[in-house]
Amino acid sequence: MSRPWPCPSPEVHRNAAVVILRLPPPPSSHRNEDAVKHSVFARVYPRLATWAEAAGAAEHRRELLAGATGRVIEIGAGHGANFPHYPATVTEVLAVEPEPTLRARAERAARSAPIPVTVADGTAEALPTAGSSFDVAVTSLVLCSVRDVPTALAEIRRVLREDGELRFYEHIRSHDRHFARYQRFADVLWPHFSGGCHLVRPTDETIAESGFTVTEARYLRFPAPAVPMSPHVLGRARITGD
Ligand SMILES: C[S@@+](CC[C@H](N)C(=O)[O-])C[C@H]1O[C@@H](n2cnc3c(N)ncnc32)[C@H](O)[C@@H]1O
Question: Does the keyword Cytoplasm apply (predicted)?
Answer without folding.
Answer: no
